[in-house]
């Protein structure tokens, strides 16, 4: 289309859709039933224009000259006959309060974006490293400390085992990165654990992996913000009493940033990630230089008396704690669709860069900690400092360098949750697409982000923080078990894929994934055993419950789909509605509802429920004066119930005409102010709720909008207003 056309340009034509044969057959059968019914015009005079393309005359009556212009499309643009495109104007509210709230929302989150702009929301490798790797990169802020916390209970003799454990974790990191490079290549449109396990091991395995990731992502947010608050408390001990409030504030910050869209969140959060990487390498670089020049000296750790023996079990526990350094490694394989083309190639390169940076930081931080003899402190002690804070003190004392490390460490720990906010909604989208999660998680929000999934993650993480009071030591034991279960399921799925398809490169890829499944499976078992009594039992309980919930959701959607598929639509001629109109009085609300009901069907019954004989007599007198155009049925309720007698009456009518469609037309008063709604329609709402689950019944609301009455005319009504229905 030319730029001067009034029709919006489209990058390409509509996609060609091929319907399944059984669906085509069902629709043809329904069409044959409708074929006997002559089509009804929109209006007999043809004045309704569905495409909104007509013209209207403008000018004063009696003038010779009349201006003619195109009818305003009310926020729609024509694409082709029978196809309109809603513009931003059509998506905006009309009322004053709603428009104000919309402006506030746009100010905080940004203006809505068109679907076709989604290609511009893709991430470059630089932004993707910040968005999708912040979780993994931030783990160096606490992984070394978690190893030391386990080792110090065995005394100074166990301290030296931190280096062999570090080496084992680095080997595991290399295996996992290489394994996920294979996964990204095999699944260029996104290959998270849920998709890989579902595709190769079956739906149940996919659900186990997906539910494990749900717990993992939720814990990622909770642990990251709790760790960031620990960093704040280390630098400012007076803030210790505000731990939970600070955690909740950081979750809100992540929520607002991610609701603005993945590209914009990447722009907002990229700088802190790279500043943290610079700060860590600068810190350990200064330490190594000072050690080499003699400004710092190697020290022996100050460890009290051993409370446990140095055993293989203790070393495995330390390894399981330090393995938290690998959390978040999978995020890039989950987020392949978020990259710019070629997606899979950019994702692999970003994953490799992340592995090198993560490994380098973990290696240097652990070695520096060992050389300086730094040991973790008790978080409850006065003047508590994290291991990173102690390293920063050793490198920079109390200078600007220390403040820089403290700020960037806090920032990266907060932003670690950003990885979860990027991948958790996408995971729920895939599960909802397969009918294992509510379909509301398939919806894309105003800013081309999965807003419902983002909000759900924020709520779950906040609840977790409240339950565990934002204490990292209580959250960490729950953390790694879900991560490594998902790792294991993904690697096992890749092994099954290589063996089944034998795609090009399978001889090289299969051994890598075999080693990966063995390594991650071993870590999962170790973590599950040694963290079980510390809280991992919660994840062992929650994951099966989530799996059962997802299967129940899937069963419901299958049932709905089966019902809808087997129900052949009826011909319009065979639909015989019977309208029942509950009324409280014969006033404008009731008359409008009765007129609407009569336009639907010739069989209309008005029902008035009352316990007052005088009210009944008054209603019958008004009905006679009106002309008795519709049968009126009085139901005297001596026990003053309203809804239940109405329901019983509806049941009785339904038994007389089981083949007809019962339509309950409910008058509804719409007040001029929002708070006035609380004063009306309570009985109508109760009746509507009761009829919601009644099969074979159609409920129609007929709103009657009040107009503002001048103040001088208010209070002139002679009798009480009866607007209960």
Note down, in words, how this protein is organized.
With 725 residues, the chain is an alpha/beta fold. It is 59% helix and 7% strand. The radius of gyration is 34 Å and the shape is elongated. The model is unreliable at 1-11, 64-72 and 713-720 (pLDDT under 50).
Question: What's the SSE blueprint?
Answer:
Layout: H1 21-35, E1 55-58, E2 67-70, E3 76-80, E4 83-86, H2 88-91, H3 96-109, H4 125-138, H5 143-151, H6 156-159, H7 162-186, H8 193-201, H9 203-235, H10 243-259, H11 262-293, H12 312-322, H13 331-334, H14 343-372, H15 387-396, H16 400-433, H17 451-468, H18 472-501, H19 506-566, E5 577-582, H20 588-600, E6 604-610, H21 613-626, E7 632-636, H22 643-656, E8 661-670, H23 682-691, E9 697-705
Parallel strand pairs: 5-6, 5-8, 6-7, 8-9
Antiparallel strand pairs: 1-2, 3-4
Helix pairs in contact: 4-11, 4-14, 4-16, 5-12, 7-12, 7-14, 7-18, 7-19, 8-9, 8-18, 9-10, 9-16, 9-17, 9-18, 9-19, 10-16, 10-17, 11-14, 11-15, 11-16, 12-19, 15-16, 16-17, 18-19
């Amino acid at each position: 289309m030319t730029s001067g056309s009034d029709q919006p340009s489209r990058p390409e034509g509509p996609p060609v859709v091929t319907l399944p044969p059984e669906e085509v057959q069902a629709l043809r059968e329904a069409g044959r039933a409708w074929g006997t019914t002559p089509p009804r015009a929109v209006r007999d005079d043809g004045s309704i224009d569905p495409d909104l393309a007509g013209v209207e005359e403008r000018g004063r009556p009696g003038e010779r000259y009349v201006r003619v212009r195109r009818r305003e499309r009310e926020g729609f643009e024509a694409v082709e006959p029978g196809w309109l495109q809603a513009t931003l104007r059509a998506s905006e509210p009309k009322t004053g309060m709603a428009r104000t709230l919309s402006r506030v929302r746009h100010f905080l989150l940004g203006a809505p974006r068109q679907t076709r702009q989604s290609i511009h929301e893709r991430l470059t490798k630089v932004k993707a490293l910040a968005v999708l790797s912040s979780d993994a990169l931030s783990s160096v802020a606490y992984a070394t400390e978690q190893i030391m916390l386990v080792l110090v209970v065995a005394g100074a003799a166990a301290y030296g085992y931190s280096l062999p454990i570090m080496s084992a974790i680095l080997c595991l990191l290399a295996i996992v990165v290489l394994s996920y490079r294979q996964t990204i290549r095999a699944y260029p449109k996104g290959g998270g654990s849920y998709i890989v396990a579902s595709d190769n091991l079956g739906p149940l395995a996919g659900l186990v992996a997906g539910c494990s990731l749900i717990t993992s992502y939720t814990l990622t947010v909770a642990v990251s913000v709790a760790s960031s608050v620990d960093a704040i408390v280390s630098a400012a001990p007076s803030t210790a009493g505000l731990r939970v409030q600070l955690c909740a504030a950081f979750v809100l910050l992540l929520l607002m940033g991610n609701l603005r869209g993945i590209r914009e969140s990447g722009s907002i959060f990229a700088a802190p990630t790279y500043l943290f990487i610079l700060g860590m390498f600068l810190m350990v670089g200064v330490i190594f230089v000072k050690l080499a020049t003699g400004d710092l000296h190697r020290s022996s750790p100050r460890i009290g008396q051993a409370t446990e023996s140095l055993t293989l079990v203790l070393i495995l526990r330390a390894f399981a704690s330090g393995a938290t350094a690998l959390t978040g490694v999978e995020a890039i394989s989950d987020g392949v669709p978020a990259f710019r083309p070629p997606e899979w190639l950019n994702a692999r390169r970003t994953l490799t860069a992340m592995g090198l940076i993560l490994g380098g930081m973990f290696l240097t931080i652990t070695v520096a900690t060992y050389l300086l003899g730094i040991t973790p402190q008790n978080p409850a002690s006065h003047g508590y400092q994290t291991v990173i804070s102690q390293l920063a003190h050793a490198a920079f004392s109390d200078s600007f360098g220390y403040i820089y490390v403290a700020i960037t460490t806090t920032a990266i720990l907060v932003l670690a949750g950003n990885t979860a906010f990027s991948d958790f909604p996408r995971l729920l989208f895939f599960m909802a697409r397969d009918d294992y999660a509510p379909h509301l998680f398939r919806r894309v929000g105003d800013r081309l982000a999965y807003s419902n999934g983002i909000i759900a993650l924020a709520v779950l993480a906040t609840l977790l923080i409240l339950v565990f009071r934002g204490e990292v030591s209580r959250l960490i034991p729950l953390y790694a078990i879900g991560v490594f279960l998902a790792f294991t399921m993904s690697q096992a799925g890749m092994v099954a894929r290589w063996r089944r398809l034998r795609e090009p490169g399978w001889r090289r890829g299969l051994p890598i994934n075999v080693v990966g499944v063995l390594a991650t499976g071993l870590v999962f078992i170790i973590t599950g055993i040694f963290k079980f009594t510390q809280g991992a039992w919660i994840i062992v309980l929650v994951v099966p419950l989530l799996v059962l919930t997802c299967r129940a959701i899937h069963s419901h959607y299958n049932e709905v789909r089966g019902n809808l598929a087997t129900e052949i639509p009826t011909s319009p001629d065979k639909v015989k509605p019977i309208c029942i109109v509950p009324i409280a009085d014969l006033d404008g609300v009731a008359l409008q509802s009765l007129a609407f009901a009569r336009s639907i069907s010739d069989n209309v019954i008005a029902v008035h429920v009352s316990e007052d004989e005088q009210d009944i007599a008054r209603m019958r007198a008004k009905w006679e004066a009106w002309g008795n155009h519709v049968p009126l049925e009085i139901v005297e309720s001596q026990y003053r119930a309203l809804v239940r007698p109405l329901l019983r009456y509806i049941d009785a009518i339904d038994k007389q005409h089981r083949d007809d469609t019962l339509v309950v037309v409910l008058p509804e008063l719409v007040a001029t102010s929002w708070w006035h709604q609380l004063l009306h329609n309570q009985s109508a709402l109760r009746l509507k709720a009761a009829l919601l689950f009644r099969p074979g019944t159609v409920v129609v609301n007929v709103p009657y909008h009040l107009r503002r009455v001048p103040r001088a005319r208010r209070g002139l009504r002679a009798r009480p207003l009866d607007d209960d229905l």
